[in-house]
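Hi F.,

I've been meaning to write this up properly since the lab meeting, where we talked about keeping a consistent format for the predictions we share between groups. The idea is simple: the sequence comes first, exactly as it goes in, then the structure tokens exactly as they come out, then a line or two of notes. No screenshots and no reformatting. I'm using this chain as the first example so we have something concrete to point to.
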Amino acid sequence: MSTSGLLGAAQVRDLATRFGIRPTKTWGQNFVIDANTVQRIVRVAGIGLDDVVVEVGPGLGSLTLALLPVARHVTAVEVDPVLAGALPETVQTVAPAMTERLTVVHADALRVEELPGEAPTALVANLPYNISVPVVLSFLERFPTIERILVMVQLEVAERLAAAPGSKIYGVPSVKAAWYADVALAGNVSRSVFWPVPNVDSGLVSLVRREPPDTEATREEVFACVDAAFAQRRKTLRAALATWAGSAPAAEAALVAAGIDPRTRGEQLDVHQFAAVASAHRALSVAQQGE
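Output, unedited:
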């Protein structure tokens, strides 16, 4: 085992052999084998001893072992039953003084509604590519105490989350993430730090929670508007929002009331403008019902 309290490539492979683990594509398992990378993640995340960190997909524990010395507590959510069972043993072996700071939850992160212990203040994770956006959005929704997120995801996903209006890659994830937080790319990660080596590059994305847009519409109503706008992103908003609003004229009325040209496309609007459209549509609908 590593004497630094962190895992290197040989230790990761030894652990995998010991526990009979073969990385599976089903769960998007690519284990980090570079200690410098996990230290970088923790540093960029700005974790301190006041933080209760939730880590999704801890795997064999590379990032967990880097988080434990700097956080007050780490709650690791792992769907793989073998990995969930192995993690406490690994921490006991590599960093025995840190065992009390760790709680392991064997669960599907997308179904987690609550966590044991203190409410989390941060989410830090190397996320499986196939669930990265849903995990980020669901944890922001379900755990309002999470103030910041630093996740390693597929570079393309990181770029989409952080994309600004007008970009070709700006879309539903960009707008929905912006509802909750200020989002920014926080660096690239070489594919060589993983085992097995993935066929895509990775990136770090940072999300710092802020107040959502000021709107009379609910989050669900705003998100429904966003989904409709990007379902037919090549169409003007007047056309793309027709079904959502009830008709093309109703969509146009909401857009005009929100100060937006109906000929605009969804990729041009930021989250505040989408919130304004949803709010205007709600107000117009209430007015019509009162007539």
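Notes:
The chain has twelve helices and nine strands.
The first strand starts at residue 31 and ends at 32.

If this format works for you, I'll send the rest the same way.

G.
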